[in-house]
């Protein structure tokens, strides 16, 4: 094993050094696979993570390592859960092996399985997964329910729509509030987009971002990319009424390395009248932001609507509106955000 592989395996808390990855020789790669296959090995998760960046193909070393970890097991359920999560890099081909552990008695493993299934499963798996899913009411059951919704939304299938938040749950920034952060937007740079597309198709929830459908957003110390599904954008606003949709995602630039991870999913569904529910959720299923364009807000090929924060710990109110057309998406308005919820409700309490 060379110094390069030593350094990559030792950097367990840092990002992946792509320059070191590309200079690994055949012996290094063989050593990496050996560690990824060793049950109980101290470097197993790190080795599988490196394999995910070297060769995430369905017949490559990552697929072999993931299958072994899931089929033969590992003494540590967190290692199994890590293998399940990395199976997302393999795309839809990994659905059978992940589905096989979705009913695991270990909640850590089961939770990871449902999170991965929502990334890579397609509509043909919905019936089987619906029969397998535990009822909502605990962390695994809630995640399974959200996973079924994401899979259905991605396919445009009805029957799994998410309930929109009640208006009393929405938050707006108080008019004279001073403790705010400015939100700024720019087109994505070539470096931004190259980093984003290092993520595999499965890690991107089977979406294929394009620069023309992507917007860079900076808020405080966070640098994010809002990616609208190009197929959704190309025929706005009609596509919003054709069925539920996984309309896009927000990717966050990680602090500990030059890479992105998915922070929010943008899910849309027609409201049965002349409007659309737009819900941004975490991959864990928590609603974070909500908008409801209707009537005059959807006209002349343009969708314009204010976006509000949903009351929950750690989510601060925002002041902005979204404008989407076939040419792209922009944010307009005050472009402000708060880090903590300390503001009035969208509709002030008449008793206050």
Summarize the topology.
Blueprint: H1 3-10, H2 18-22, H3 26-37, H4 44-54, H5 61-71, H6 77-86, H7 95-99, H8 107-120, H9 126-132, H10 139-155, E1 170-171, E2 181-186, H11 190-196, E3 214-219, E4 222-228, H12 230-233, E5 245-253, E6 260-270, E7 276-281, E8 287-291, E9 298-299, E10 302-310, E11 318-325, E12 328-337
Antiparallel strand pairs: 1-10, 2-3, 2-12, 3-4, 4-5, 5-6, 6-7, 7-8, 8-10, 9-10, 10-11, 11-12
Helix pairs in contact: 3-4, 4-5, 4-6, 5-6, 6-8, 8-10
Overview features:
single chain, 352 residues, alpha+beta, ten-stranded antiparallel β-barrel, 12 helices, disordered C terminus
> What multimeric state do the chains show?
single chain
* pLDDT averaged over residues: 89
> What does the overall shape look like?
globular
Q: Quick one: how many beta strands?
A: 12
The fraction of residues assigned to DSSP E strands is 15-25%
**Order of adjacent strands in the largest pleated sheet:** 2-3-4-5-6-7-8-10-11-12
Helix content: 25-40%
Broad structural category: alpha+beta
Textual characterization of the structure:
With 352 residues, the chain is α+β, with helices and mostly antiparallel strands. Helix content is 32%, strand content 23%. A ten-stranded antiparallel barrel has the order 2-3-4-5-6-7-8-10-11-12. Helix 3 crosses helix 4, helix 4 packs parallel to helix 6 and helix 5 packs antiparallel against helix 6. The radius of gyration is 21 Å and the shape is globular. The C terminus is likely disordered.
């Amino acid at each position: 094993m060379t110094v390069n592989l030593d350094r990559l395996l030792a950097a367990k808390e840092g990002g992946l050094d792509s320059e070191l990855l590309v200079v690994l020789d055949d012996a290094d790669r063989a050593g990496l696979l050996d560690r990824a296959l060793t049950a109980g090995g101290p470097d197993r998760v790190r080795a599988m993570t490196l394999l995910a960046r070297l060769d995430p193909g369905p017949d490559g070393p990552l697929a072999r390592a993931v299958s072994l970890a899931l089929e033969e097991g590992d003494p540590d359920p967190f290692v199994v859960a890590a293998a399940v999560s990395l199976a997302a890099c393999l795309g839809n081909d990994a659905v059978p092996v992940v589905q096989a552990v979705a009913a695991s008695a270990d909640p850590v493993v089961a939770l990871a399985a449902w999170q991965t299934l929502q990334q890579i499963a397609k509509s043909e798996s919905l019936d089987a997964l619906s029969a397998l899913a535990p009822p909502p009411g605990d962390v695994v059951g809630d995640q399974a329910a959200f996973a079924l919704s994401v899979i259905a939304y991605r396919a445009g299938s009805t029957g799994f729509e998410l309930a929109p938040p009640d208006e009393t749950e929405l938050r707006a920034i108080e008019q004279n509030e001073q403790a705010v952060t400015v939100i700024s937007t720019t087109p994505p740079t070539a470096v931004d987009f190259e980093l984003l597309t290092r993520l595999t198709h499965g890690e991107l929830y089977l979406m294929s971002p394009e620069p023309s459908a992507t917007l860079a957003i900076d808020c405080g110390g966070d640098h994010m990319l809002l990616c609208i599904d190009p197929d959704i954008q190309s025929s706005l606003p009609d596509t919003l009424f054709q069925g539920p949709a996984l309309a896009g995602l927000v990717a966050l630039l990680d602090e500990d390395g030059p890479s992105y991870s998915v922070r929010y999913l943008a899910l849309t569904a027609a409201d049965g009248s002349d409007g659309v529910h737009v819900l941004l959720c975490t991959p864990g299923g928590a609603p974070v932001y909500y908008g409801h364009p209707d009537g005059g807000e959807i006209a002349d090929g343009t969708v314009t609507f204010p976006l509000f924060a949903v009351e929950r710990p750690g989510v601060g109110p925002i002041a902005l509106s979204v404008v989407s057309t076939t040419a792209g998406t922009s944010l307009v308005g005050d472009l402000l955000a708060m880090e903590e919820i300390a503001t009035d409700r969208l509709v002030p309490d008449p008793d206050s």
